[in-house]
Amino acid sequence: MTSRALEAPGLDARLHVPDRLDASLTAAAGDVVAVIGPNGAGKSTLLGALAGIVPAIGSVEVGGRSWTDPVVPVRDRGVGLVFQDQSLFPHLCARENVAFGLRTRGVPRAEARARADQWLDRLGVGELASRRPDQLSGGQAQRVAIARALAPEPALLLLDEPFAGLDVGVATSLRLELARHLAAFDGVAVLVTHDALDALTLADRVVVLEDGEVVQDGTPADVAARPRTAHVARLVGLNVVTQGGQLRAFSPVAVTVSPGRPHGSARNCWHAEVAGVAPHGEALRVLARADDGPELIADVTPASAIELGLAPGQPVWMSVKETSVDTYTMRP
Amino acid sequence: MNPLPRLPRLSRVIGLLAAVTLVAPVAACGSDSDDSPSSDASSSGASSDGTTITVLAAASLTESFGELAKTFEGAHPGVTVKLAFDSSATLAQQAVEGAPADVLATADTRTMDDAKSAVTDAPEIFATNQLVMVTPADNPAGITSFDDIENGDVTYVACVETAPCGDIWATLAKKDDVTSQPASLEVDVKSVLAKVTSDEADAGFVYSTDAVAAGDDVKEFPVPGSDDEITSYPIAVLQQSDHSDLAREFVDLVTSKQGRSVLEKAGFGAP
Amino acid sequence: MSGTRPSAPGAGRAPLVLVLPGAIAAVLLVLPLITLVATTPWRDLPDQLGSTVVHQALWLSLETSLLTVALCAVLGTPLAWLLARVEFPGRSLLRAAVAVPLVLPPVVAGVALLSALGRSGVLGRPLLDGFGLTLPYTTPAVVIAHTFVAMPFFVLSVEGALRTAGERFDVVAATLGATRWTTFRRVTLPLALPGLVAGGVLAWARSLGEFGATITFAGNYPGTTQTMPSLIYTELQADRGAAQSLSMILLAVSILVLAALRQRWLRPL
């Protein structure tokens, strides 16, 4: 668990949106919290509720100041939102987009523009300041959007899948850069993502959301090593099975696929049906559905795949050595 | 409810389309002559042999010709008189363009002249009309005579000069040395009357027949010199008539003593 | 956003069942205009262009139609915004009411205006008694009549544009600290600008051609209330040819203005 030594007051939120969200979230100033979870888990709802653009019941406190008692309107909350689709104002150039949040807070026009230019420079798109959004690539637009969200120096920065829809290369370089800016950012940053890589590289904390509830909250290493849901397990490329009220995680590399029942412990052995085979790095990744429920993945060499004649629908046995299994409890 | 100013129906519809076409008034020009006249078929009794004569008549003849048509139908069982009322200019145009009709009666000789090519013989003058001044029944401006229109506070309306009633007004205004200006020049006499009966004008210049038709809704005042500027109503049988005998008989009825008394009741003068 | 439209080679020939009625519609729309131009006696034109009455009517038409557009923009834009963005009781009722003048015969519009603002109208009477003001027979009455019939075109067009633009950017602006007024000024309005321009052009065109409501409510007097359409209608009583060539003048002016606007504004139209 993270240290909850809230030396500087950060974020303390308890939010309830009927049928969609029922979650608590706390973070210290300077923290970057990644929120991951499957589609429809309530990630965007959580961001919206924090920003005040989704009506929610509960309390939000940021930097020691309550946003809910009395209710602080969106415009006075001091949030910076980075939208998945950037949502840059299409009629304003990059500079004016970034200057917008400064102008609304009373910064004189010339100064706002100068500061906008500095932010654009910092995000490496200074030379695109006069361009309109439709003249920017996806990556460039996202940089402008990040600059726009950061420029007014918000107390809470909310990023909604900022790398979704970007080319892998573009996403990678932007991710590295964002890491740098987030490190320098002294407010709380909440990053919604469906990419484990984002969570692992950018966040100090990972919060796993499922069906509107927080099911796991820990350091990236913790969550990656001991995922508590199948979804996160899949995200981080691990098998997770529930046995006797305990969670057992193991790597797909440790899984052996064989046509007949192997020797060894029965509890590490599943009869399954191959659902699909796809290249995964040097190996082939086999997705199989066990007779008694869990989906399992195994990495096999191309040679053994041919030898096994793996094809969808084929029954196989999958097994793992006890020494490769990490066992932990559901709730700490 | 006040009577609506009389405007061709089609122009209202076309007005709606103005934004799209930009040429509503243009379209309205074209439509007038093509617009089928609003007909008022007064059929008393079943028409056994289905003979119908169509009479194109100036709008000011609405009441009197309605009554005469009934009289005519009573005297000719099985005959229906169909009446189409419109402005004289429009009717003359329709007659020239061969509209299926038997009789044409207009409100001035000029429009009848325009239709010369469509009539069989010399038109007969069957009635006269003259300009009078009317005020609303409660006479809000306290008008006592024609001269009061020179009072700057009096709002009055007249017909536009291109209409027969406006032509007469302009002539009389000149003769009587009127220096004030009307607030509005209405396109036809019914619009003038509507402005007065709806209290939007303190006075208006209409035909004596209009004043009679408006009854208690207006007060009538004479206009100096209007006796010298009477308009004559000619009537004639049309060349395209399929029942020229019946048409002739209808003209005879209109010009008869009986016809005259009906017309006089409506405010028309004798020819 | 981009205007590239790939051709669809597999779409096949246009079916006759669509081509035929389409062609008839085109003929119906275009033919009367062509015959109008063809039968116009152009000899009248020089005289008319020199006539004071025509000058007055043309000038009044331009003046009142532009004032109408201005009034539509100043009053209609906020109304469109209210209809598109603010929940209030009776909103759908109000939206329906706004559209009514679209289907109202213009003469009835004139009568309606008289009943409200005429000398003995519900508002007109107190206006007359209290301030000695009468609207009928004045140029402001022309503008009011035009605004009454043109406003729905403007409001519906702008409301449509506001709805299409959506509230997304309003939300973005709010997260950036903008008040609703700032958002309206700097985000909503610029984004709805194409709708505003389209609505303005529609309103202007409607105003330029307006006749029934004007002549009923405002009257018909050269220089104060006689616009081009009123003059054309008046002229029609005496000389159809003259009316036609006057119509040509009006047509030419509207085409000129639209062409001038097209350069800059009307590409999406």
Automatic annotation (TrEMBL), chain A:
Residues 263-329 form the Mop domain. The keyword ATP-binding applies. SUPFAM superfamilies: MOP-like, P-loop containing nucleoside triphosphate hydrolases. Residues 3-236 form the ABC transporter domain. Transmembrane segments: none annotated. Keywords: ATP-binding, Molybdenum, Nucleotide-binding, Transport. GO terms for biological process: molybdate ion transport. GO terms for molecular function: ATP binding; ATP hydrolysis activity. It holds the Pfam family TOBE. It comes from the Bacteria. This is ABC transporter ATP-binding protein. The lineage of its organism: Bacteria, Bacillati, Actinomycetota, Actinomycetes, Propionibacteriales.
